[in-house]
Design a protein that fits this description.
It contains 16 helices and 24 strands. The protein is an alpha+beta fold and 490 residues long. It has a domain of 237 residues: ATPase, nucleotide binding domain (Nucleotidyltransferase, domain 5, 2-Layer Sandwich), CATH 3.30.420.40. The strands form seven sheets. The chain has a seven-stranded mixed β-sheet with strand order 18-19-17-16-22-23-24, sandwiched between helices. A six-stranded mixed β-sheet has the order 3-2-1-6-15-14, sandwiched between helices. A hairpin with a 3-residue loop joins strand 1 and strand 2. The protein starts with a strand and ends in a 5-residue tail after the last helix.
């Protein structure tokens, strides 16, 4: 029996995952990588560490699954998006660290572009708001600030790519990406489905630096994964992690939506084969390209969701570990009027306020540790509510339910509160590694070794119904909106 390998390269680490043809997970290895930060709030990763971890995780997952390397038929990759890597194609070495999607160091570049009136051009062509969080501004920052990068542009050796392109290059020698990742760079024209010459120019880049854009189920090349396999295994899928989770949730039909809980969160709804006319408070991207056709999505990205709970444990120390948060939050009957707005590096959708900073408000002498933890838990659900509300304004078909995946879905308090504050059912996947699953499922289908019926057969859903009455919901949301108004105007 053949198996599928997927590499899920996320913000916090790299997973090696082994799947059977029925879509069941049979082996897993997780390897964290360093978060390189400084007092300016810059966030970086080491690209070489990420590549080494991908090889190590693949080997360890195969051993954990108890399968032989020669039984791996196909591989797929899902990846953290917008994180920017530049490397020299002659040496294969990075010219700088990977600038992580969370990092806003390129704000001066996008602010200058906005002052020149280029914001509308970017939004019209790419579906994205002009922002330092997307890859193009990060590439531009590297070219402007790293002499080796500027020199590589001159001699035609610079490669600019997201994490998927970096891994594909290291594994296969090919310079390729897929539509999902390309659509998150601010360099892809959503109408022509090609790199846009005007945008490449305004960001100070050259098209020769950029990877070839392929369907997400393309054959991206063959790799022996550093000698792990006796012969090259075909890599038959690449997807940004949120897109891969949408695919694994089988949201392949219009108006189906999911939210992925991780360091941040991505709320994404499939809007079909045509670019939507409206995107109020959210952005438009490509879900994937498969069989020569693309699918569009509306998406809202939130910078801090699971990371808020990790902050409580690692920075503030009022809980020992993230898994305690739900129990502590449910130990009090309400938030006691306390709200936390986690704008540690600005607020994402639907506010797009890069300069806002976090607050905790509404405290009184009666406020306890539990109220603050509950406020942190609740802020995750409030932020997702705000994105869903924006999506509903942009669609003729409001969401009637939403699928959910990611580690925080184990938090029963959070999931019930999420359903309550949305007022619609939340369907929680039986699998947590949905991004890796999407890469594996797409690879199996692209390689023709499984049918859709087979590959999606393993996932089950636990449905959480809303229990809160509308008056209580509106009262809580009013308090949240008041808190948000303290740091931005809405």
């Amino acid at each position: 029996m053949g198996y599928i390998l997927s590499i899920d390269q996320s913000t916090s680490g790299t997973k090696g995952l082994i799947w059977n043809r029925q879509g069941a997970l049979v082996g897993r290895c997780d390897i964290p990588h360093r978060q390189i930060t400084n007092d300016k709030g810059w966030v970086e990763h080491d690209p070489e560490e990420i590549y080494r971890n991908a090889l190590t995780a693949a080997e360890a997952a195969i051993k954990e699954a108890g399968v032989k390397p020669e039984n791996i038929e196909v591989a797929g990759i899902s990846n953290q998006r917008e994180t920017a890597i530049c490397w020299d194609k002659f040496t294969g070495l990075p010219v700088y660290k990977a600038i992580v999607w969370q990092c806003g160091r390129a704000a001066s570049i996008t602010e200058e572009m906005a002052a020149q009136g280029l914001g509308d051009l970017v939004k019209t062509k790419t579906g994205l708001n002009l922002s330092p969080f997307f890859s193009a501004a990060k590439f531009s920052w590297i070219v402007k600030n790293v002499p080796a990068a500027a020199e590589a542009v001159k001699n035609g050796s610079l490669c600019c790519g997201t994490v998927d392109a970096w891994l594909i290059y290291k594994l296969t020698g090919e310079l390729k990406t897929d539509y999902s990742n390309a659509s998150r760079t601010e360099l892809l024209n959503l109408d022509t489905l090609t790199w846009d010459e005007d945008l490449i120019s305004v960001f100070g880049l050259k098209e020769a630096c950029l990877p070839e854009i392929c369907d997400s189920d393309s054959l991206f090349g063959y790799s022996d994964f550093g000698g792990l396999f006796p012969k090259g295994v075909p890599i038959h899928s690449v997807m940004g992690d949120s897109h891969a989770a949408l695919f694994a949730n089988n949201c392949t039909k219009q108006h189906m939506a999911k939210t992925t809980y991780g360091t941040g969160s991505s709320i994404m709804v499939n809007v079909g084969a045509q670019r939507p006319e409206r995107a109020e408070g959210v952005v438009t991207s490509l879900a994937w390209g498969r069989n020569g056709e693309v699918v569009y999505v509306l998406e809202g990205n939130i910078n801090y969701t699971g990371a808020v709970i990790k902050w409580l444990a690692d920075n503030i120390g009022i809980i020992a570990e993230s898994s305690e948060a739900g129990d502590v939050a449910s130990s009090v009957t309400s938030n006691g009027g306390v709200y936390l707005v986690p704008a540690f590096s600005g607020l994402g959708a639907p506010y797009f306020s890069n300069n806002s900073r976090a607050i905790i408000c509404g405290m009184s002498k009666a406020t306890t540790r539990s109220h603050i933890v509950r406020a942190a838990e609740e802020c995750v659900a409030y932020q997702i509510h705000d994105v869903v509300k924006a999506m509903n304004r942009s669609s003729d078909c409001p969401l009637s339910s939403i699928k959910a995946d990611g580690g925080p879905t184990r938090d029963r308090f959070l999931m019930q509160f999420q359903a309550d504050i949305l007022g619609i059912p939340v369907e929680i996947s039986s699998l947590e590694a949905l991004s890796g699953a999407g890469a594996a499922y797409c690879a199996a289908l692209g390689a023709g070794i499984a049918s859709e019926k087979e590959i999606f057969s393993s996932i089950r859903y636990r449905i959480i119904e809303p229990q809160m009455d509308s008056a209580q919901r509106e009262k809580l949301l009013a308090g949240w909106n008041d808190a948000v108004r303290m740091i931005i105007k809405i």
